[in-house]
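Minutes, project check-in
Item: structure for the 123-residue chain
Input as provided by the requester:
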Amino acid sequence: MSDSHGRFFAAAPVFPVDNAAEAVEYYRKTLGFKIKLLYGEPVYYAIVARDSVEIHLSEREDTSTPIEHCAAYVYIDDADLLYEEFESKGIEMFAPPENQENGMREFELTDNSGHFLMLGQKI
């Protein structure tokens, strides 16, 4: 019997949003993602991507309750350069990149729906 098993290659968070079209535009114009998929007319599900990172945006049917905010940790290659890019676009971030005890240089922001993006590079 072999000990081979299925392998994981990637993961993509699915963020609930109140308005998928607005969320897509935020990721495209503000965070520099490209549109990979738009589903529905009007759009209620979308996939946006930047380099090899995908984020799925799923419009909620019931917007009467607040969104349960989600988070994604995104591995990047240059925290300082990306922070400068986002800062030049006026994106509010919690603090400049900082070295952490876990060996990562990180910073955080929230998207237009309140979801957390934690971005970190190995140091």
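Outcome recorded: The domain at 14-122 is CATH 3.10.180.10 (2,3-Dihydroxybiphenyl 1,2-Dioxygenase; domain 1).
No further action items on this chain.
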